[in-house]
Amino acid sequence: MKVYFIGAGPGASDLITLRGANLLGRASMVLYAGSLVPTDMLQHCRPDAELIDTAKLDLEQQQACYVRAQATDCDVARLHSGDPAIYGATAEQMRRLDALGIEYEVVPGVSSFTAAAAAIKAELTRPEVSQTIILTRVSGRASAVPESEAIARLAAHRSTMCIFLSGPHLKKIVTDLRLHYPADTPVALVYRASWPEQRAYQGTLGSVLKETKRKDWNLTTMLLVGAALGRDVQTESSLYSRDFTHIFRVMKKKKQKATA
């Protein structure tokens, strides 16, 4: 038997990868977090699959499911929202599978930060503006953020930042960001990117607290901030410039000279 940690993507059932969907269609047992993975995603499962919502299960209870599957030699699909590599709580599961001698594989998925960028039609990197993206979150009851990675410190880079689960902490986040970013820095809030109830706000660090209500953004909200989000940014990459040559594209004059 084998366990597949599958990135379910940000929410929309058709944003799972083909590999992930195919593995879902083969697994006899499917574990998924019902609080984060929409039930529409389960349409990819085989009709007779055992579906287990892990939202109410602790780690030992989830481990028991793996042991039971091992006893019957059936494959398990473990669905994680977004990509399993980011805030997926997969490492502790893998350690237990290693101890049990159970083989596993990780199938990447579309992260909610890229889905949020798509929702507002934004490119997170711009030439000469920002070539760095910082993915982070604030400390919560389940997982603490090291002090060296506090938002107030990371903001000093003034790169593009994507802050997960930011809704309940919006006021504190904006206060920390304002230590380094100017008030007119573009900011966006995206609630449940790619879900049917998706909604988005776009404004600036100086306006976001005045123009939004905390209760509207409490859960599963991504905050994007940085100068690269600005619609007025005019810088362009040289990659597709007619004067930029590389091994796949040679300037016409050079081509003509070569054939003369």
Q: Could you walk me through the main structural features you see in this protein, from its secondary elements to its overall organization?
A:
By secondary structure, the protein is of the alpha/beta class. It folds into two domains: 2-107, Tetrapyrrole methylase, N-terminal domain (Cobalt-precorrin-4 Transmethylase, domain 1), CATH 3.40.1010; 112-229, Tetrapyrrole methylase, C-terminal domain (Methyltransferase, Cobalt-precorrin-4 Transmethylase, Domain 2), CATH 3.30.950.10. The chain has eight helices and ten strands. It has helices at residues 18-24, 59-72, 91-100, 112-119, 151-154, 170-177, 208-211, 252-259; strands at 2-7, 29-32, 50-53, 76-80, 103-107, 133-137, 160-164, 186-191, 199-204, 221-225. Strands 3-2-4-1-5 form a five-stranded parallel beta sheet, with helices on both faces. It has a five-stranded mixed beta sheet with strand order 6-7-10-8-9, with helices on one face. The protein is globular and about 60 Å long. The model has no long low-confidence stretch (mean pLDDT 91).
